[in-house]
Amino acid sequence: MMRHILGEDLKVGCNLTWGPCFDFQKQFFTGADDKVSTHPYLLRYDIEVSGFGSHRSGHLCLLRLKEQIYPGGDSKNHWPTLGLNTLKWAKRQGAVTGPAHSGNGTAVKDGKLPSYEVPDYNGIGANEFIVDVTHEVPGPDGKLVPAVDFISTVDTEPKAELNMWYHVLNCGYRVRASGETDFPCIYGERVGMGRSYVRLAGPLNYDAWCEGIRKGSNYVSDGYSHLVDMTATGDGRSALMGEGESELRLAKPGKVTLKANVAAWMPEAPPPPRKREPAWSIERARQAGVRTVKVEAIVNGQAVAEKVIDADGAARDVSFELPIERSSWVALRVFPSSHTNPIFVVVDEKPVRASRRSAEWCLKGVEQCWSQKKRFYAPAEMAEAEAAYEHARQRYRKLLAETTAD
Fold first, then answer.
1. Shortest CA distance to 291 belongs to which of 273, 272, 263, 266?
2. DSSP assignment, residue 19?
């Protein structure tokens, strides 16, 4: 694995121990950087809940763990079947958490983004996520923290990944995006096909890198387009993505300038077709056979403005002036190659309640997910599962009542 990290010039690699190889690979977990790490190339062993426990309701990435095995055994055979219980254990030790290969089971057929079609919730991606994102659980100091920090992207169908993310952001949940390569299960071509570019204030280390994911100071990319240092400015104030709470506060509705340093690269002519083009790929972003791509400004999941840039590798400043009528989240993307995390524009101290249709979609998703996943929860956890889903229903109903925007 370290050879792959070096070959792709990845500064941080997460080797996630999972089901079939758990008993062999558990020997390498230390809760610290692996001994093969050579700064600035870091390798860390953590966990993907895959092939055991709650995996049928959605695989979970558990990063920055101090302990790798759930209490009650020494392997994978006794783990919870309710993902929320796994998340509670991980968050008590300060882990950074989120679903893996999020588009598995959450794809829709209408091809829209956002889409209001309810997915099947019959896979192993961000399925129980629709429930878990509504929960807060105790952290290391006992204070409540979000049960999930990120949704994985750049690994499965981009519209499925982004649709789930956009809807929960519209409900006011501040979950971030992380890049993922499920190597070699989904893509055996190379590691680093899905990347998180994290802005760090201090020295590079794994714990700080994970904290950057949690705070959303990263953008995700296939490595061929970049959206660096996104800022939002308005009413004499400015916010940098991932700095503090990623908030720009406005006293009243007004104009916001969204800016980033943007670069993209692709060959001048489209290369020969590949047997399998990755789901996220700069070639899928190519405009009409020429060497250009669109940079889009996103407000509450809707592309509201765009600019076309040459994909020649040159870095250039790109800005958009956006009218903001109510508390919203804003972001930039080169679809489907890269995406920033959001900046939250808070107007008149009101929370983000961007869309009744999103709240309705999430509420219907809880019911659909329950219809598919309830048979996988162990009898001993069934009461907890029922309570977890009911909590989610109540939260989305409350959000729906608080939301006036369509």
1. 266
2. G
Burial string for 150-184 (b: 16+ CB within 10 Å, else e) reads bbbbbbbbbbbbbbbbbbbbbbbbbbbbbbbbbbe
DSSP characters over 278-331 = -SS-HHHH--TTSSEEEEEEEETTEEEEEEEEE-BS--EEEEEEEEE-SSEEEE
Following CA atoms 30, 34, 39, 41 in sequence, which dihedral angle do they give, to the nearest 10 degrees?
-120
- Give the separation between CA 177 and CA 175, rounded to whole angstroms: 7
Taking the C-alpha atoms of residue 7 and residue 186, their distance in angstroms, rounded to an integer, is: 19
Within 13 Å and on the Cβ side, how many CA atoms surround 23?
Answer: 6
Distant-in-sequence, close-in-space partners of 354: CB < 8 Å, separation ≥ 6: 169, 170, 171, 172, 300, 301, 326, 327, 328, 329, 403, 405
What tens digit of pLDDT does each residue of 255-290 get?
A: 999 999 999 999 999 999 888 889 999 999 999 989
CA dihedral 194, 200, 204, 206 (to 10 degrees): -60
Please choose, from the candidates 302, 146, 154, the residue with its C-alpha nearest in 3D space to the C-alpha of residue 219.
154
Q: Are 72 and 55 in contact (CB under 8 A)?
A: no
> Can you state the percent helix, strand and coil of the chain, rounding each to 5?
25, 30, 45
* Per-residue pLDDT tens over the stretch 77-127: 999 999 999 999 999 999 999 999 999 999 999 999 999 999 999 999 999
Q: Which of 353, 340, 330, 341 is nearest to 234 (CA)?
A: 330
Q: Measure the CA angle with vertex 126, ends 353 and 227; round to 5°.
A: 70
Cis-peptide into 184, omega within 30 deg: yes
Task: Give the end-to-end CA distance of the chain in Å, rounded to a whole number.
Answer: 48
Q: Give dist(CA 312, CA 90) in Å, integer.
A: 43
Dist CA 252 CA 382 (whole Å): 46
Instruction: Note if the bond before 40 is cis, omega within 30 degrees.
Output: yes
Best CA proximity match to 289, nearest among 312, 269, 275, 314: 269
Interatomic CA distance for residues 327 and 344, integer angstroms: 8
